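seq/struct pair 1
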Amino acid sequence: MRICREDMAANLAAFHRIPAIRPELKPASVAVCVMAAGDDTTVLLTRRARGLRSHAGQWALPGGRREKGESIEDAALRELREETGLRASPDAILAVLDDYVTRSGYVMTPVVVWGGAPNGDLRGEVGEVAKVFQIPLGNFDVEPEFLRIPESDAPVIRLPLFDRYLHAPTAAIIYQFCQIALHGATQRVAHFEQPVFAWR
């Protein structure tokens, strides 16, 4: 699947995001970084290192907690640089999506970034990122699966990815991104639940 920056930017420009006003929670930014790779368009995902105390080995968007005084956008660009080695400038930012409140106490704000054509190998901080992947956008533009769990009344969202699943919050964020950027459809995802193993 190949989609140009201009088409995505036009769809994203028409979107009106909903912030989560939760000052008691920790603010975090994640980068939904879109790359042009030959005849394909890809999204950067990392595999978290196995030695991490939380969410070890899971798929994740580049991101993390915002530093004091840091803007949503600046934090996303910093985390993108630290976790993938990709340096993007502020004019590469296409949009900011809805906040997603995690069970672990974060307000996660996704920032859509145009990363352009890949330039060399991408790699993140040793000990935090096991590997950086450029995954074709078509792999994400699929119908999500929804599960019911006894611990919550909300549906748990997941996206099939290769031989595994992508779980919320990453699955929710990427689902919203695909619906808006690719289809011009406003899709809210803050009400979708995370699996229990991601609550801590």
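seq/struct pair 2
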Amino acid sequence: MSHPILNIEGLHVSVEGKEIVKGLNLCIRTGEVHAIMGPNGSGKSTLAYALMGHPRYEITKGKITFQGSDMASLEPEERAQMGLFLGFQYPVAVPGVSVGSFLMTALNALSKAEAAHGKSTFYKDLRKNFRKNLKQYISELKIEENFANRYLNDGFSGGEKKRIEILQLLCLQPTLAVLDETDSGLDIDALKTVSNGVNTFMGPDRAVLVITHYQRILNHLKPQFVHILAKGDIIKSGGPELALQLEEEGYKAFGILEQESQAVEQSPPPL
């Protein structure tokens, strides 16, 4: 039986004193795929980074509950330990740290946090089977094996960076994946491969929130819920037909004027 993973109530988020998210409400339950669509500057990426606890994004009002816990005072690493994952719109390079070392370090941290809280051995088991799982996921995502030894995202193409993001998702097995424009810059084949990776991750005890501009990735991920975000709030929610309507009719059909969709949210600096 599904239960709420993430519950957002009356959320207001400001960046450097400017309010971007304005009273947003959203509930995501286990087994669900949600999509958020909206024009540039509507608050999509701001929402993603606020969920993950980026210090530049100040929650001025409202509440975020994840796995039953209030996230207001939690650091980003604590949110990750609880099972929250963010796939970046612009993944950063980490010269000097290989993909394999990065993933193993993350699993070690998750395993230690799990043991400290007296929880199950889920991450301990993932760490034990790390090499076998890594090899399997690299093959499924059509990533060259030598990428595990290369520095994280250093010199990678846009498509390669997005595949590595999904590789992290599969290896770390979070509860909720927030994917911020994972489809940007992907060709048709890469989009299908990345989408298949997300579908492999999904299960009855997990959920996905995908942020996108386009219907094309939703053809593969098949969300049950689609939300249109404009001026910092969700103005309409529905099923997958809502994305099809948006693709066909544009934002004017929802009362969003063209000049209102020209502002561009700045990409935040790394944590």
